């Protein structure tokens, strides 16, 4: 473990924290949430495809293509789309916090579908997450008043992101993650296409899109993957929970978003639940070298 490893993980968290605030800039320039999600997936697929070709990462075996298509539709189409809708309807800070219900979803799916034991740590993490979501949903301020749909899309994004863990546990060690994203991101873009209304884009809108693709998707992946070479996965996952803090600060500075007192308590419970889940042995999806 080296200090540089922590710096790299922290920089990756900052890159991810930019997603919501920068997406709001694209919305202000006339783009719809699902169009932002589409371009992020489509252009991200180009970057990861070039990366995989440069590294000569090979190809995905034919028997795994069906699973990879399913991952693209759930882990990209549903996840990217739901997250952007949550940002539009509830704000960048709210969406980022609700995304971090993912470890609780993972723990719940492990117990219900995989026959895993419900350990005290998992039970505590699940309880803290539920209470946190209630606090975030019922609290409010003049700037952030979450609607049912905003909370719903935020929870859907957390659920979809949780599936990164189940997919990543099996395939990210078998293939170069960049190769998997070179396949999955274009599939996800195609899945979004029927619901996209394309708009004329200003230079500012294109700048926001390129920032989301180049910084918050591709660069964040490179930083996090490099950081994992220097920091053990559990510690890296905890450091990465600074992402919603970054998102909340930027959302306040750029867009005037401010949680009410109960929402701050709820957000704190959700992030603390991540630490409990990770320390209790259930890793966060981030530890599987996943991009976002």
Automatic annotation (TrEMBL):
<dbReference type="InterPro" id="IPR037185">
    <property type="entry name" value="EmrE-like"/>
</dbReference>
<keyword id="KW-1003">Cell membrane</keyword>
<keyword id="KW-1133">Transmembrane helix</keyword>
<feature type="transmembrane region" description="Helical">
    <location>
        <begin position="236"/>
        <end position="255"/>
    </location>
</feature>
<feature type="domain" description="EamA">
    <location>
        <begin position="150"/>
        <end position="277"/>
    </location>
</feature>
<feature type="transmembrane region" description="Helical">
    <location>
        <begin position="66"/>
        <end position="86"/>
    </location>
</feature>
<feature type="transmembrane region" description="Helical">
    <location>
        <begin position="261"/>
        <end position="280"/>
    </location>
</feature>
<feature type="transmembrane region" description="Helical">
    <location>
        <begin position="179"/>
        <end position="198"/>
    </location>
</feature>
<keyword id="KW-0472">Membrane</keyword>
<dbReference type="GO" id="GO:0005886">
    <property type="term" value="C:plasma membrane"/>
</dbReference>
<feature type="transmembrane region" description="Helical">
    <location>
        <begin position="204"/>
        <end position="224"/>
    </location>
</feature>
<protein>
    <recommendedName>
        <fullName>EamA domain-containing protein</fullName>
    </recommendedName>
</protein>
<feature type="domain" description="EamA">
    <location>
        <begin position="4"/>
        <end position="136"/>
    </location>
</feature>
<feature type="transmembrane region" description="Helical">
    <location>
        <begin position="148"/>
        <end position="167"/>
    </location>
</feature>
<feature type="transmembrane region" description="Helical">
    <location>
        <begin position="123"/>
        <end position="142"/>
    </location>
</feature>
<dbReference type="Pfam" id="PF00892">
    <property type="entry name" value="EamA"/>
</dbReference>
<dbReference type="InterPro" id="IPR050638">
    <property type="entry name" value="AA-Vitamin_Transporters"/>
</dbReference>
<feature type="transmembrane region" description="Helical">
    <location>
        <begin position="36"/>
        <end position="54"/>
    </location>
</feature>
<feature type="transmembrane region" description="Helical">
    <location>
        <begin position="92"/>
        <end position="114"/>
    </location>
</feature>
<keyword id="KW-0812">Transmembrane</keyword>
<dbReference type="InterPro" id="IPR000620">
    <property type="entry name" value="EamA_dom"/>
</dbReference>
């Amino acid at each position: 473990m080296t200090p540089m490893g922590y710096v790299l993980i922290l920089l990756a968290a900052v890159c991810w924290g930019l997603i919501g605030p920068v997406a709001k800039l694209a919305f202000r320039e006339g783009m719809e949430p699902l169009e932002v999600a589409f371009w992020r997936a489509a252009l991200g697929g180009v970057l990861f495809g070039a990366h995989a070709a440069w590294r000569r990462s090979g190809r995905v075996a034919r028997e795994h293509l069906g699973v990879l298509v399913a991952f693209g539709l759930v882990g990209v189409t549903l996840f990217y789309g739901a997250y952007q809708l949550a940002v539009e309807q509830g704000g960048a800070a709210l969406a980022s916090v609700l995304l971090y219900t993912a470890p609780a979803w993972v723990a719940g799916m492990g117990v219900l579908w995989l026959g895993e034991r419900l350990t005290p740590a998992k039970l505590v993490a699940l309880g803290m997450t539920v209470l946190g979501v209630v606090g975030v949903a019922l609290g409010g301020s003049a700037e952030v008043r979450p609607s049912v749909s905003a909370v719903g899309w935020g929870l859907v994004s957390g659920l979809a992101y949780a599936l990164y863990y189940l997919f990543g546990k099996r395939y990210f060690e078998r293939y170069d993650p960049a190769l998997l994203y070179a396949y999955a991101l274009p599939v996800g873009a195609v899945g979004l296409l029927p619901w996209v209304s394309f708009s004329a884009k200003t230079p500012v809108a294109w700048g926001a899109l390129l920032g989301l693709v180049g910084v918050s998707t591709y660069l964040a992946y490179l930083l996090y993957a490099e950081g994992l070479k220097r920091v053990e996965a559990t510690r890296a996952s905890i450091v990465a929970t600074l992402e919603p803090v970054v998102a909340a600060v930027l959302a306040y500075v750029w867009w005037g978003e401010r949680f009410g007192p109960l929402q701050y308590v709820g957000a704190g419970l959700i992030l603390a639940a991540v630490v409990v889940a990770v320390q209790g042995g259930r890793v966060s999806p981030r530890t599987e070298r996943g991009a976002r």
